[in-house]
Design brief:
The protein is α/β, with parallel strands linked by helices and about 700 residues long. It is built from 24 helices and 26 strands. The strands form 5 sheets. Strands 3-4-2-5-6-1-7 form a 7-stranded parallel beta sheet, with helices on both faces.
Length: about 700
């Protein structure tokens, strides 16, 4: 029971925060009995105008903790025009936040807008004061309508962990810097803006705050990861057999009316969704959701799943993020996601009405995936471990340089001006030499014209600017076929092909269709029954992240100071747990030293006769990586998201970009903590488990 002094302190804090939010309190908090812990911690520094990174568990009230004090400042200080941007990773989240904030923001007399490819805002003199948008639409405004942003006083970055460490995060960093310099220019240094960011899961909050908000930013972290009520089963067989096994296993959880099922591929959604109409869900509504479905199909699935009282939705990572789909009683994960962050997002979607608890059923297809699930569940209670640093991607400078030149008057700048705008020593650095190399590369390829240190777009640069590429650092989709409803003409989905559909039927998101006609790349479909084959999609997979390896090692009881290895036949499997990319760097160093070596997600494979010299060999490999020529040969683009414009770089710059991904300091520290190598007998439980995770 809370101590009387604690209750008094809590009451006094509520009174103080209500005073600080004298204008916005009723709109945001009058309906609630108490403020959430994150609101108690975050409101004061935000309403004071500080840059703040807020991290807290999902469903903790972060959005209100941030938006209410920003609205308080907007009203109290009489900010003029468009003064506030809320940047969120996806258009679906833009729409979701717009619906959630329309009432409280509107009650304050603040005009709320949204800016995406689907929703426009008024021209320069429009009424919007607070706009929800994506990084790409932020880019569009700054590049083509910069005067619209002349009165910006606050920027909120939602779900920053989904952007941090990605090409879009690199773009956002430079967008913030470009906006800061633009406001500094038009106000003679008198105008700046506050940045507040929100996240549920971050391995290094201080580093993220420094990178996006500046070194003076505050970090408000609220603990309280919800209790995880988890069951893990192993189910082998085809999609139907595994789905039925999952439904049977879900019986251990009482009172389940709505289940959200996560799978790792679009094809799994298409092929397996209907198989979940079984057992306790035999009469439930079934919905499917993935990124290749048309926007209208996805939104319909979201709305129906939210309104249904008895339903199952089968989805890919598209529903990991915080789109409002109502209360979910159970999350089912059919095989592990590729990162701990993704797992936390998935399990965070469920059971929000169960105070402080989340329910998850994990369905593994083999022993390796069972171990990964077990490791993830335990690691989730401790948070995401820190891993190697992710560099700024040189390929992003292609898009950012051209966007900035389009933004500025005259479309030209000196090298010094570009250096001021597009370099930074905060976070993953962007050095002057990095920029100079990029500018020289773009000039040699006809993208830029550089004369007497005046730089402007050349013909290839203008082609880029006039295309949709100028807005984005997301991968564009290869040419795909369009699957259309023959009755309405509406798009249902896009796919690579229907090559596997030999009986002229296709299954999409669990629904069956007949193929009734084809015109070029447009395929006409009509609703049917009992289709069996899903379309083929272009692959989008990367290997397991670094944090998954750490979780598995801890599950197996392997301490940081020990490397374990196992011999199977003529192969020696050395478990490093440091991620596929780092293993690829070590393997390349070993090969250049004359050793046979292949990387896999959790370690390295050597010939069995190397077992006596593992530690010495690894030290030699790390030492060889100091030679840039070694790291430049590693196909980083196969193991990491290097950005869509990596192929625009010359061969020599691609080599430098690969080298950027080597965190030599991380590898040195990792190996220096190793004091012993244990060769585990294959006929032991640990030996069998190690062999299992070689090919998870």
């Amino acid at each position: 029971m809370p101590h009387t002094d604690d209750l008094n302190d809590d009451f006094e804090r509520h009174v103080e925060l209500r005073r600080l939010l004298s204008i916005s309190w009723n709109a945001f908090f009058a309906r609630f009995g108490n403020l959430r812990p994150v609101q108690l911690a975050a409101i004061s520094p935000i309403v004071a105008g500080n840059n703040v990174l807020v991290t807290a568990p999902t469903a903790g009230g972060k959005t209100e903790a941030v938006v209410a004090p920003i609205c308080e400042r907007l009203r109290a200080d009489h900010w003029e025009g468009l003064s506030t941007l809320l940047i969120t990773p996806t258009r679906a989240l833009v729409n979701d936040l717009f619906e959630r904030l329309t009432r409280p923001v509107g009650e304050l007399g603040i005009v709320l807008g949204r800016k995406t490819a689907d929703h426009a805002i008024a021209r320069d003199d429009g009424p919007e004061q607070f706009v929800i948008t994506t990084p790409e639409s932020f880019e569009s405004m700054l590049t083509f309508r910069k005067q619209k942003l002349a009165n910006i006083r606050a920027i909120i970055i939602d779900e920053i962990h989904l952007l941090d460490g990605s090409p879009r995060g690199d773009q956002l960093r430079l967008l913030l810097q470009r906006l800061r310099l633009f406001l500094d220019h038009i106000s003679s240094g008198t105008r700046t803006f506050q940045i507040v960011a929100l996240s549920a899961t971050l391995p290094n909050a201080r580093r993220t705050a420094d990178t996006y908000l500046g070194r003076s930013a505050e970090v408000v972290s609220v603990s309280g990861q919800r209790e995880i009520e988890a069951q893990i089963i192993t189910a082998i067989g085809d999609d139907r057999e595994r789905a039925e096994a999952a439904i049977i296993a879900s019986e251990v959880f009482p009172d389940v009316r709505k289940a959200l099922v996560f799978v790792n591929s679009r094809k799994q959604v298409d092929a397996s969704a209907q198989h979940f109409r079984y057992g306790r869900f035999a009469s439930a509504s079934i919905h499917g959701h993935h990124g290749s479905l048309a926007k209208s199909e996805r939104e319909n699935a979201e709305a129906r799943f939210k309104s249904d009282h008895f339903a199952v939705c089968v989805a890919t990572m598209t529903l990991e993020i915080g789109i409002d789909i109502g209360d979910v009683d159970l999350v089912i994960c059919m095989d592990p996601p590729l990162s701990l962050s993704s797992f936390l997002q998935r399990i965070g979607r469920g059971c929000r009405r169960l105070q402080g608890k989340t329910r998850v059923l994990c369905v593994a297809s083999n022993r390796a995936r069972q171990l990964i699930f077990e490791g993830m569940i335990e690691q989730a209670k401790q948070g995401i471990p820190r891993g190697p640093n992710i560099p700024f991607r040189r390929s992003v400078l292609v898009q950012q340089t051209l966007a900035y030149l389009k933004q500025v008057n005259g479309n030209r700048r000196t090298g010094t001006q570009l250096q001021k705008t597009l370099t930074t020593d905060v976070g993953p650095s962007i050095t002057a030499s990095t920029l100079d190399a990029g500018l020289a590369d773009m000039t040699s390829q006809g993208v830029l014209d550089r004369r007497h240190d005046i730089i402007q777009p050349a013909s290839e640069g203008w082609s880029f600017i006039e295309s949709s590429r100028i807005y984005s650092n997301m991968e564009s989709q290869p040419a795909e076929i369009e699957l259309l409803d023959v009755e309405t003409g509406k798009l249902i989905a896009t796919a690579a092909s229907l090559r596997s559909n030999t009986d002229n039927t296709v299954r999409l998101a669990g629904k069956s269709y007949d193929v009734v006609g084809t015109e070029g790349r447009r395929v006409k479909l009509r609703g049917a029954e009992n289709a069996t084959a899903a379309p083929t999609y272009h692959p989008r997979t990367l290997p397991y992240a670094f944090d998954v390896g750490i979780a598995v090692a801890r599950r197996l009881g392997v301490p940081d100071h020990r490397i374990v290895a196992v011999i199977a036949g003529e192969k020696l499997f050395v478990m490093t747990w440091i991620g596929m990319l780092n293993n690829a760097f070590l393997a390349e160093a070993a090969r250049q030293a004359g050793l046979k070596c292949k990387p896999f997600p959790f370690g390295l494979c050597f010939p069995a006769d190397q077992s006596a010299s593992v530690q010495t060999t690894l030290h030699k490999c790390v030492g060889r990586l100091a030679d840039a020529r070694v790291s430049q040969q590693v196909p980083v683009e196969s193991h990491a998201d290097v950005g869509p414009y990596f192929q625009n770089l010359s061969d020599s710059l691609q080599k430098l970009a690969r080298q950027d991904w080597l965190d030599h300091e991380f590898l040195t520290e990792w190996l220096n903590q190793v004091t012993e190598v244990e060769l585990v007998p294959l006929n032991t439980d640990l030996g069998q488990d190690l062999l299992a995770v070689v090919k998870p």
